[in-house]
């Protein structure tokens, strides 16, 4: 194992402050950095020595022999233990779970996000299938801490084994149910989960608490249970490695990967890269970003994807349709550059609203209006190609107009989808409606 790198910014909030120095011995579970304000504690995931403390990271050289034992967190109230353990949202931006669960729902809902929305990722579903007991304990702790009366697992209906596993586990639970989701992107977006499970459409500026709910990722509830039941700090991550790998493009699912592990180590563990490749993505096909072999796994890393080479546009003029559900303009420009295209026009999906922090949020995730006006803009500006990063429904509306204008469409996920033999995002072919199980179970 190579040296591990622990980024000081792994979650929402300011970078953490180191509490170790070069030469210090650390154990698995040793506290190495603390938040300045909003944030979460960071722990060593290995036994070893601190190699260096840099401006943005701590580098630890691991011992050759590693033990299973870890330094436990202190006993306290369930909420105090979640905060001390440094648990954050393991499926998104990494919002501190202790802050999120500090909301008194006064009888509302815990919505367990088990959508695993990004295509090609499978670790959330595998967790349910293999560790439902601890997952369910985590849900109950979240209900207890936040004073929620009910919990709902939001999961795609296609994951039949996982659905049946949940169904069996909650058979005697009167206050915990399942809501089945269609297999379209982005059903895992926080407000989409609220809309689908509770029938309430929140404004882009509203939090789930406006619907008397807290949305929490399925891996996060597992880490909550581990903090309270095992006194275990949050220093590991479940993840998927997939793509152009020796041995085939089947997904490699890993549980409890030590935070700080390099992308290179994860790829080599999965067979290594098979010949020429396009790019390495950290995260999912829609919201992930290009990464390098040296970059480290963080608490929010869900996937590592090695793609086939991207097509060459030979300098052709390109329009970028930026969507709140997919990559940022920066990411789309990155893809266009790798395809040797020339950006001549940029537009935003008509439902993408800019927030005060500069991020985009969709007015109604997964339910998209027509995009003909944007396609007309691209045509007027001389584009021959469009690069889009839109949701399933929005891609559908683009395809209703772009081909008629002789605009060629490339979805930012195309090279990933071709790598993993997944249908391209073009025409919506699945229903948005899913028949629910009797009585929500």
Secondary structure blueprint with pairings:
Layout: E1 4-7, E2 17-18, E3 25-26, E4 31-34, E5 42-43, E6 48-53, E7 57-62, H1 78-84, H2 97-100, E8 109-113, H3 123-130, H4 132-146, E9 150-156, H5 160-169, E10 176-181, H6 190-198, E11 213-217, H7 218-230, E12 236-243, E13 252-258, H8 263-269, E14 280-282, E15 289-290, E16 303-306, E17 317-322, H9 329-338, E18 342-348, E19 352-354, E20 360-362, H10 372-380, E21 385-388, H11 392-399, E22 408-411, H12 414-419
Parallel strand pairs: 8-9, 8-11, 9-10, 12-16, 17-18, 17-21, 21-22
Antiparallel strand pairs: 1-7, 2-4, 3-6, 4-5, 6-7, 12-13, 14-15, 14-16, 19-20
Task: Work out the radius of gyration.
Answer: 22 Å
- The spatial strand order of the largest sheet comes to 13-12-16-14-15
Q: How many strands in all?
A: 22
CATH class of the largest domain: Alpha Beta
Q: Unreliable runs, pLDDT <50, ≥5 residues?
A: none
Helix content: 10-25%
CATH architecture of the largest domain: 3-Layer(aba) Sandwich
Biggest pleated-sheet summary: 5 strands, mixed
Mean pLDDT: 95
Number of domains: 4
Instruction: Assess the beta-strand content as a share of residues.
Output: 15-25%
Distance between the termini: 44 Å
Task: Categorize the overall geometry.
Answer: globular
* CATH homology group of the largest domain: NADH-ubiquinone oxidoreductase 51kDa subunit
| CATH fold group of the largest domain | Rossmann fold
Structural class: alpha/beta
Number of contiguous helices: 12
Organism: Faecalicatena faecalis
Protein name: Proline reductase-associated electron transfer protein PrdC
InterPro entries: Ion_transpt_RnfC/RsxC, Nuo51_FMN-bd, PR_assoc_PrdC, RnfC_N
Keywords: Electron transport, Repeat, Transport
